[in-house]
Amino acid sequence: MAKKQETKPAKKQETKPTKGQLSRAKREKRRQKLLQIVGLAVAIVAVILIGVGVYHQWYLGSYKPLHETAIEVNGKKFSVSYYLDALDYYMAGQNQYVSYFIDPVAEQIIQNELISQEAAELGFNVSEDEVRKVIKEQGLDDNQAIRDIVVTQLIVDKMRQEHFGPQVPASAEQREVKAIFLESESQAQVIKERLEAGEEFSSLVEKFSLDPTTKEDDGDLGWHPRGILAQKMGTSLNIDDIVFSLEPDSISDPIKDPDKTKALGYWLIKVIERSEDSLKSHVYAMLLSSEEEALKITGELEGGVDFLELANTYSQWQGENETKGDLGWISQGDMSPAFESYALSQEAELGAVSQPIKDEDVTTKGGYWLIKASASQEKEISEEDRGTLIDNLFSDWLEEVRSGSENTVQNYLDSEKKNFIIQRVLG
After folding, report:
1. In the chain, what is the straight-line distance between the N-terminal and C-terminal CA atoms, in Å?
2. Per residue of the chain (427 residues), what is the pLDDT tens digit?
3. What is the Cα–Cα distance from 315 to 320, expressed in whole angstroms?
4. Is 226 exposed, middle or buried, given 0-12, 13-18 or 19+ CB atoms closer than 10 A?
5. What span, in angstroms and rounded, lies between the C-alpha atoms of 222 and 361?
6. Angle at which helices 144-159 and 80-91 pack, to 10 degrees?
7. Strand locations in 142-182, DSSP E?
8. Quick one: CA dihedral 37, 38, 39, 41, positive or negative?
């Protein structure tokens, strides 16, 4: 019997990938690998860039200082970045003068914060809508420094109107005042005698007064209450007590004002040496407040007192030399025409002291007032005077606020931060 043949299961036929499939697979592998490489490279580059950026910013000071504290007022901190925004506002485009703005802007930030803190204690605040309105109307940048500046301005306006304004009465005792500013006591005494003899105040003001403000209106300052005249006359004297104690229509005695500035001075010059070409002179000089003072010192020089000793005591010249009276070698264009007309002249005797030389191109301190006041009257205070009186009240209040012993103020703007700020603005 024939053996039954066993049937083996058919072998599964293996399907070989085609060349096209192999090619696509290889391409896909390469693509995945490339993506991995690119991804890794991007990650590495990103890390490097971030690292370099942080290092660059940190090392060069363009990152770290921006977040450091520049100023602190009663616990509130203001960063360098904040300070730069405030600086930009106050400079108003005058970036080339940034070094001159640095300290004043710091002081302004301190003052603004003290005003805001103290005003809040008095119940004065402003709303977000008010701040946004001002920023929009004035086209300002909207950052925290600008917002704080606007807040302070609005608070001050409110305090002037609602706090200080009501403290100024509608009317007050006033006097009509005329004033003239003169260079010396002797001149003031002569002018007083001429006024008492009947000469017109206005004509003498026009000819002799050294104060441009009072001279504008022929010396007539008008009617004013207490608290106005010192500012109008540009004096630090307590002028109200003098004015309101004068007999009606009388002329005051000469009133000394040692701090009042004027465009006038007198030189005493001593030429020590002259160059061979006569274009330069080595000079000693002193600048004095009046001819009267110059003549007095001339007498001391003739009595044997050393020139430089007197110059160190009396001269108002703000020169750069350590020895106040030794101006060194000068040539044409170094000093005023009045000075050079003597110091560079061949006629100036070496070693001799000049007569007093009048110079209207220099500024000196000191002089004397004469004042005439009419009878006092109760009058309505003008809007201009009212504004000045309100300003005075605010200034007094602010001085108290700033000098408060409870305030803790720190200015951290050292030379390193200041240099960074200057470079940041100019660069």
Report:
1. 111
2. 444 444 444 443 444 444 444 444 444 444 454 445 434 443 443 443 444 444 344 444 444 689 999 999 999 999 999 999 999 999 999 999 999 999 999 999 999 999 999 999 999 999 999 999 999 999 999 999 999 999 999 999 999 999 999 999 999 999 999 999 999 999 999 999 999 999 999 999 999 999 998 898 999 999 999 999 999 999 999 999 999 999 999 999 999 999 999 999 999 999 999 999 989 999 999 999 999 999 999 999 999 999 999 999 999 998 765 568 999 999 999 999 999 999 999 999 999 999 999 999 999 999 999 999 999 999 999 999 999 999 999 999 999 999 988 999 999 999 999 999 999 999 8
3. 13
4. middle
5. 30
6. 60
7. 171-182
8. positive
Using CA atoms, how far apart are residues 23 and 200, in angstroms rounded to an integer?
A: 116
Q: Count CA atoms within 13 Å of residue 339 on its CB side.
A: 28
What whole-number distance in Å separates Cα of residue 294 and Cα of residue 308?
14
Domain segments of the chain as ranges: 67-166+396-426, 171-259+366-380, 265-362
User: 127-158: b or e for each residue (b if 16 or more CB lie within 10 Å)?
Assistant: eeeebeebbeeeeeeebebbbbbbbbebbbee
Q: Maximum Cα–Cα distance for the chain, whole Å? A: 175
User: Do 265-362 and 171-259+366-380 have the same topology in CATH?
Assistant: yes
Cβ atoms of 252 and 371 within 8 Å: the answer is yes
Pairing of strands 364-373, 250-251: antiparallel
Class level of CATH domain 171-259+366-380: alpha beta
Q: Using an 8 Å Cβ cutoff, are 365 and 236 in contact?
A: no
Classified by CATH at the fold level, domain 265-362 comes out as Chitinase A; domain 3 (3.10.50)
Concatenated DSSP letters for 185-248? HHHHHHHHHHHHTT--HHHHHHHH---HHHHHTTTEEEEE-TTSHHHHHT--S-HHHHHTTSPT
Q: What's this model's pTM, rounded to 2 decimal places?
A: 0.75
